[in-house]
């Protein structure tokens, strides 16, 4: 019997780019890419994912953290993490 591997769009193993800083303020959280001089605002879920990446967590650990924090299914958490990482990968925030 073969097990099906979840399609995560090639986002496993990504890390926060060294040029990116997380800035938390009263108006919310932004990621600052010093290399490009650009800011990107993230929501609560995005912040959780970015913090986990900064702490060296892998994809599965991040999904588990979201399942526990938001009481969603593993499938929903996998989709949310994958979508977020694909977006920030396109922006160069993770590599």
Summarize the structure.
The protein has 95 residues and is α+β, with helices and mostly antiparallel strands. It has 3 helices and 3 strands. A hairpin with a 4-residue loop joins strand 2 (28-33) and strand 3.
Question: How does this structure look, described?
Answer:
- This protein is an alpha+beta fold and 95 residues long.
- Helices cover 43% and strands 18% of the residues.
- The protein has helices at 44-54, 59-70, 74-91, and strands at 20-25, 28-33, 38-42.
- It has a three-stranded antiparallel beta sheet.
- Helix 2 (59-70) crosses helix 3.
- The longest helix is centred in the last third of the chain and has 18 residues, at 74-91.
- It is globular and about 35 Å long.
- Mean pLDDT is 90; it is low at 1-5.
- SSE pattern: EEEHHH
Question: Mean pLDDT across all residues, rounded?
Answer: 90
User: Largest beta sheet: what is the strand line-up?
Assistant: 1-2-3
Round the Cα radius of gyration to an integer and report it: 14 Å
Looking at the chains present, what oligomeric state does this protein adopt?
single chain
State the end-to-end CA separation: 34 Å
Derived from helix and strand composition plus strand pairing, the structural class reads: alpha+beta
In this structure, how is the largest beta sheet organized? 3 strands, antiparallel
Q: Figure out the total of helices.
A: 3
Helical content stands at: 40-55%
Beta strand count = 3
**Strand fraction band?**
15-25%
Shape: globular
Low-confidence stretches: 1-5
Keywords:
disordered N terminus, 43% helix, 3 strands, 18% strand, alpha+beta, 95 residues, 3-stranded antiparallel β-sheet
